[in-house]
Structure formats: structure tokens, C-alpha cells
Here is the input.
Amino acid sequence: MTKHLRTAAVCSTAALALAQAGSVAAKVERIVIDGTTAAPKVEGAPEYEIVSGHFEGTLDPQLPANTVITDIAQVPRNAQGLVEYSATFRLARPVDTTKASGVLFYDVPNRGNYLIGADPDGHVRLVSGWQGDLPKDPALQTANVPIAKGPGGRPLTGPVLVRFQDLPAGTSTAPLAGSIGRPTARPEPVTLDTRKATLFYQTPGREERHQVAATDWAFADCSTRPFPGKPDPHSLCLRGGFDPARAYTLVYTGKDPLVLGIGFAATRDLVAYLRHDPDGLARQIRWTVASGTSQSGNFLKSFVNLGFNADETGRIVFDGINPNIAARQVPLNLRFGVPGGAARAFEPGSEGALWWSRYDDRLRGLGTTSLLDRCNATGTCPKIIETFGSAEFWGLRMSPGLVGTDAAADLPLPANVRRYYFPSVTHGGSYTGGFKPAGDGAVPGCRLAANPNPSLESLHAAQAMLVDWVSKGIPPKPSVYPTRSAGDLVEPTARAMGWPAIPDTPDPARMLNTMPDYRFGRGFRRRDVSGSLTTLPPVQQGTIRQLVPRVNGDGNETAGIASVQLQVPLGTYLGWNETIRGFDAGKGCSFVGGFVPFARTREERLAKSDPRPSLEERYGNRDGFLAQVRAAVARQVAAGWLLPRDAERLLRQADDSDVLR
Here is the structure.
């Protein structure tokens, strides 16, 4: 069958299945397929094809499953009284259906970015758009969501906050944008009158706010015309330009909020449709699993917390989920939300439930909550494997999820949750692979080299356990992570951590991203990180105590699932780094991990007063190093923390390395 005919057949099958499903609920109304292409070959995987397209859906705004979506009651409806949306998708499936495992594995895109292709285990792989504020780009997975309106169709308004930081010297104009990694446009102001808005700046290390006079800035573009420039509702122009050492905060009244929370429903309804559609796109799906990394893992936590793991008819959506390196909830279900934020000043995300078991957050007055409250009530909780590493403690405020906001004791895990910790890694671990004596290279704006310690191999093993747990009923390994009771979680000071006196390294105590106790006003539903941010900037009522993992004499963490590289270390692998310039100079460098290499010889380390044994003192020579790598690989495979295909790759990387060559 030609690609064109195969695509036509898929379209026909999807249309038929949708017609049959139409009587069940108003969900996915139409799937449009743009094309079907052969997936690149993957060793050990059957032949795959990738189906690309978009889907169109509707939501009943009065259905209890949907009323949790912020502002959905304010959205214009179609003739049937339903809310319309659409989103993109890509699906990779085995060409030979007998080679399919029966598992649908959903990878939550991160800021629209995604990877998809053949799966060595025969799983159907799926990605789809959910973030409605992304620019429309064929290279991204995106969603089209409606705008909420006020009474009589008038604009719906509310406060909006935009932060400007570390702009190059001489910059006069900056866009009104949010998010990290991929800037997203903020809403237009209801007026360009600067007297109806507030702009202030702060200087490094000081809390004082210095207001900028309304006559010294404008909603304008000054790139081609001197101040006050050309009026522009999407830009801010500052008389005299921005100071690189200052952080500026703008608060104004915006209009026409996108109903971003529909992204949760779009994911719910697409997956629910595919898992109950035996003759359509995905073909005979029996189990569904989702994984999300960083922002996407936060999405999964909020997805479950808000009750979206039950579809509109009450059936379970995902049998298992893997929130990876995800310390917060995603600030998506908000009027004027910024789902691409990342635990920076004045940003929401850590204010609600952060724990899997029920915990009474007395410090913040949140009450007794759990991320699983809603799914427990409906019997739709998934099996959960949570994975994360060092950078999540240091840069993303992971600690309260383990010990609560009072940090008094370890919080228990429910029977359907496993937690695996990857020690001494940067955010997501190194993706370059290999054994690198000098680290992963320089990081712009950070003092130390990039941390080369990976976590991907351990993540692969954890995800395989999740699939077996869901599809075969095989319980995964017991949780392994740092706890207070074992002495693995300590105060974030060098003394408490056991930090060695490594020359030319910063004080770890300055590297922690503090956790403010923010109050965003009465319109904000803290438990769910939903609603409206009616107080901006938020009022800070204190700082939440956080704990961090202890370290050994090398400065490396001791608790968790140590990678082969950490078992045969080439230096000190850190979950933190130091900012060397700009407003945050001297503090943690976002959530980037650093690396301090060992000296090669004893003489070199003594000359630097380095207390850590050198490479030669540890391994003798290259053969000694390779022997220890082989032994560590064998241990990891035997323990079930290294898949055979990953073990072979690690051994090749060690052979190719320059260690003691």
C-alpha cells in the first residue's frame, strides 16, 4: 500500500470510529491526518510509522469533569452549547500490528518540544499539544484554546506581571513575554496609559522596590524611534535603557485571557479516545502510560491533582505516570497563567499540594491535602513512579514534597507510588553521555563546568518498571531516595552537608533557591494552583524551610540510585552552580548543575590543596579505571537499574573516553 493510500485508510478508520464514539460524550469530534511517514530505524525495534495531524474537540462547560477549568464558564459556545478547541498530535506505531505491545506511551511535550519514533519494546508512542500560549510553529506540538470574555462579550481583565532581568546593557526595548526556554507573549494591556500600571526595579541582594516614574517608560518600541518611541501594546521602552544589574517588574491590567486549562482536557480526551478505539489510530491499546520531564512532569502532577485522570464518563485515563524532575504543579490553569515559568521570583507553582500522601500544611494554612485526593475519590488513581535528582532540591524547591513545609518528618508514600532519586545530577542529568574528566563544557553565565553525570539510564529502567507494573502486575523495586530519618536530608549548609573544603568552589548555602510563602490574593485557589492571581506582585509572608542531600568526602551525594559515572567518579558532581554576572550574581545558576574535576595526579592535587584523591590515586591507571567501570555496570545490570542495551553503550563510552589515557 502506498503512503497516500495508507494515510487515506487511516483517515477513513478514524472518521468511522469517531462517528461510533459520538454518542458516548462530546469529546474528540474529528481527527485530521496530515501525513504518515516511515520512522527512522531503531536497533531492536520493529518497523514503525509516524502519523501526524491535529484533532478537534468539544467540552461541556457544565460537566463536573470540566468545571475545574479556570474561566471555562466565560468562553463563547457553539450552537450545541459546547466549548471548542483543537490541538496537534503525532503518533508512532508498529507497521506490523502483531509487533505492538498493547501499551500506549504518552510523552508530554515540554514547551512544545518533543521526540517521537520507533520503540524497541513495541509501544505505541504519542505526543500532543496542550500549551495554548505557544507560537504556532510546525516544529512544535501546540493547542488552540479559546479566549474568555466578560459579560456581554466585553473583554475579561485582570492583573498581569512581567519580569525583565539580565538584559544587555543599552537595551531600550523589551517584549512583554514570559516563560523560560521559549518566550511566550503576555496579554495586551487594556490601556497604554502608564499611570494605570506600575514598573519598579530591585538591586542585587536588596528587597527594596524602587518605582519608575510613569513618565520614564512607555508601552512602546524604541528600537527605531527615540523615547517615548512607537506605541506598542506588546513592548516596554525604558528611558535611558535597562540596567543589566537590576531586575524590573511590571504589573498592569491585561485583557482577553486564553483558557489555558483546556490543555488538560485536550490530553485527557485524546488519550481516552485512543485507548478505547480498537480499530482506529492506535490499534488495540490495553494500557496507557505517561511520562513528563520538568515542566511536563509538573503538568502530570496537576493533571492528576485536578481530576483529569478520569475521563468525562468516569473511566481511568492513564494507568501509570512518571513525573520526572518535576518539583511543582504547572501554573497552567490560571487566568493569564505562565505555564513555562520555572520557580523564579513572583511565579506561582509551589503554593498548592506537593505531596502524594495527605499532609496538613499548617504553616501556610492550606489544610490537609494530597495530589491524589480527587482520583482517590473516583477510583482513578494511576500507578506512579516519581524520579528526580539533585538540581530539583537546589533549584526547584523539591524538599517540601518529601518532608512538608515544616520539614519536621518524612512524608509517607502511598502504596501506588514509588520514588527514585538520582544523586549528584543536573536538571535531567547529562544528555551528552560518556566519561568526561573535564565535564560537559562551560555553561554561559555559570561559574563551574557543566555536570556530566547522567540519569537517563536509570530513568529508562524506572520507566520499564512502570510499564511492567501497569501491564503485568509486577511491583517495581522499593523506593530509594534521601530521607530525614536516615540522616540523608540535612540543612543546606556546608557543615550539615559534610561539604569538603574543595578549593575555588562557592559556599553551597548561597546556592539554594529559597522558597517564598507567597499569597496571590483571594482569586487564587492555592491547593490547585488555579483561578486568578488577584494580588501581583504576591505578598510574601515568610520563607519555607528546605532540606538538601548530604555528601561524602568527594562532595558527591550518598543516597539514591547512583549512576555508573557516580560509582566511578571523575570529580564532584553538583546539583547546583554559581551565577557569575547579572542580578543573581553569587547565587545559584538557575537549576544548572556544576562539576569540579579531580586532579590527575597526587602532586597536582597537593599543589592545589585539594582534599579529594586524584584519578591515579583512585584507579592507578586506565586499565584500573575501565575495570571499575565494568564492575559498576555489572552491579547495575544485576540490580535492575541498567537495561542491557544501555549497559553496552556505557561500556563503549568508557572505552572511547580519555580518562587516564
